[in-house]
Design a protein that fits this description.
Layout: E1 6-11, H1 18-31, E2 38-43, H2 49-56, E3 62-65, H3 82-87, E4 92-95, H4 98-101, H5 121-133, E5 137-142, H6 146-150, H7 154-165, E6 178-181, H8 195-212, H9 215-220, E7 222-226, H10 234-238, E8 245-248, H11 255-263
Parallel strand pairs: 1-2, 1-8, 2-3, 3-4, 4-5, 5-6, 6-7, 7-8
Helix pairs in contact: 1-2, 1-11, 7-8
This protein binds 2-phosphoglycolic acid.
Length: 266
């Protein structure tokens, strides 16, 4: 088994104006400057990408986006393409986050609004294709809802998402991709998945990659955990055998806390 470099990505979601993102990044970058053995990614809003890119020029931190559309151009009002992200200097892009899959699993989200997000395994697959074409590394999110966990179908749900999301790609195209196991019930809820269980699912994802693609790519792809990761639980999670880092939402908005999370990954 190869020694995989840990990867920690911050998903700032619909938070931080470009000015606020710049200030957050300045503080964060200083606090993590001594941690050169962890790959770090920040995913600001589209509008903050140019400012963040400028600040990252001299720093070993990668730039990520939170979503992408699967056509390069055309009459798709409000959408942003992989070609545009590549031109803006984006290296990574989150795909299939449960908030874009429309699988919020939160009671306060009215069912009538879910269709607005409506990501499916098929759109996830199309997006990954365009990202790879433009040289951007996808961070594919998969995860079960609370109802699916309670029904005992977690493993089958995850395997199906991996199979459909990666259908049609060659192992050689996916070496620099990452996969994030994000149980929907753990996202933004303060309810973290038990480290041993999170590691078990990450191991299951690795086995799926080995059987769908090949052993080499399964050995190389970073498999992250996401869902209420904080500085108080990150070390436990990141030191599990099958967890190669994390996708951090809420806690990445506080630059000091995000830095402590990154520091715990080394
Ligand atoms: P959280 O979000 O850390 O706020 O739970 C994680 C994510 O949505 O990627």
């Amino acid at each position: 088994m190869s020694e995989r470099t840990k990867l920690v990505a911050g998903n700032w979601k619909m938070n931080l104006t470009a000015t606020q993102a710049a200030a957050t990044l300045e503080t964060f970058a200083k606090a993590v400057s001594s941690r050169s053995d962890v790959d770090i990614v920040v995913c600001p809003s589209y509008l903050a990408i140019p400012k963040v890119r400028e600040l990252l020029r001299s720093r070993p931190i990668h730039l990520g986006a939170q979503d992408v559309f699967w056509e390069d151009s055309g009459a798709f009002t409000g959408k942003v393409s992989a070609a545009m992200l590549a031109d803006a200097g984006v290296d990574y892009c989150i795909v299939g986050h449960s908030e874009t899959r429309g699988r919020f699993g939160k009671v306060e989200t009215p069912a009538s609004t879910l269709g607005y997000f409506a990501e499916s395994d098929e759109t996830v697959n199309l997006k990954i294709g365009r990202l790879l074409y433009h040289g951007i590394n996808p961070i594919l999110c998969v995860g079960e809802t609370l109802a699916e966990r309670e029904q005992g179908v977690t493993d089958a749900v995850i395997e199906a998402q991996i199979r459909a999301g990666l259908a049609g790609f060659d192992a050689s195209e996916l070496y620099f991709s990452a996969i994030a196991y994000e149980p929907v019930w753990a996202i933004g809820t303060g309810q973290t998945c038990e480290p041993a269980e999170a590691s078990r699912i990450c191991g299951l994802i690795r086995n799926s990659l080995a059987s769908l693609l090949d052993e080499d790519v399964a050995d190389q792809v970073r498999i992250l955990y996401g869902g209420s990761v904080k500085a108080t639980n990150s070390a436990d999670l990141f030191h599990q055998p099958d967890i190669d880092g994390g996708l951090i939402g809420g806690a990445s908005l506080d630059p000091q806390e995000f830095a402590r999370i990154v520091m715990s990954a080394g």
